[in-house]
Amino acid sequence: MNKFLMEANQFLSRNVPGYFHTDFPGAGQPGNPDFLYKIKNDPHHKWSQQHIRNALNGLNAVLSTDFPEILRQVEASVLTVCVVPRAKAESSYRLDQLLFKKTVGEYAHSTSGFIDGSNFIIRHTNTRTTHLRNPVEGFENDGRMPYRGIASDTCNFSEHIRGRDILLVDDIYTKTVNIDEDMVQALFDNRARSVVFYAIGNTPKRF
Questions:
Q1: Longest dimension (CA), the chain
Q2: Reduced to 3 states, what is the DSSP secondary structure of residue 157?
Q3: Angle of CA points 153, 159, 164, to nearest 5°
Q4: CA distances from 109 to 68, 72, 103, 123, 130 (A)
Q5: pTM for this predicted structure
Q6: Cα–Cα nearest to 18, from 168, 204, 153, 119
Q7: What are phi and psi of 170, to 5 degrees?
Q8: pLDDT tens-digit map of 92-126
Q9: How wide is the angle at C-alpha 84 spanned by C-alphas 160 and 175, nearest 5°?
Q10: How confident is the model at residue 134 (pLDDT cuts 50, 70, 90)?
């Protein structure tokens, strides 16, 4: 696991501690957490059930390694685990396309020192999927690109966020996109006491 500083910028009013499990150089590259593609279970990939089971095992292995270590490093004795929602409205996904959120929530629910807050952030309005470089047949990539306040405009936030120490989890972090920075700010705007960020993969700098 790697530690970094999520730096304040036009999306985020303060520095926030962050962690990621490994770099995410791209599909098929050495060390890339390719299991993340399978967990999304998007129709154009047509993954088998065995592929998906293996991917979920990979995610659980990462969580069981990294979450306890994060808890040891932060000042909070208990962390409420929230998940950055997928880009489109949650109602547009099948349940088996929300396996990342489900798995993270189940791990938090079953592990001492964590509280499952995976349903504390629900997206109600589509946003642009930022990592798609090419069109995908049968998929309309509608919605706006990231702007300051997009999380608050497109998501519902539970009142239970107030006063809690939050561990915000995403599958992949890309510094230049600012989706995660804006989501962290929204948690502070909803009166979270503290926020720590964690991603499975970190998109390495290209330049």
A1: 47
A2: strand
A3: 110
A4: 13, 18, 10, 21, 30
A5: 0.92
A6: 168
A7: -135, 165
A8: 999 989 999 999 999 999 999 999 999 999 999 99
A9: 130
A10: low
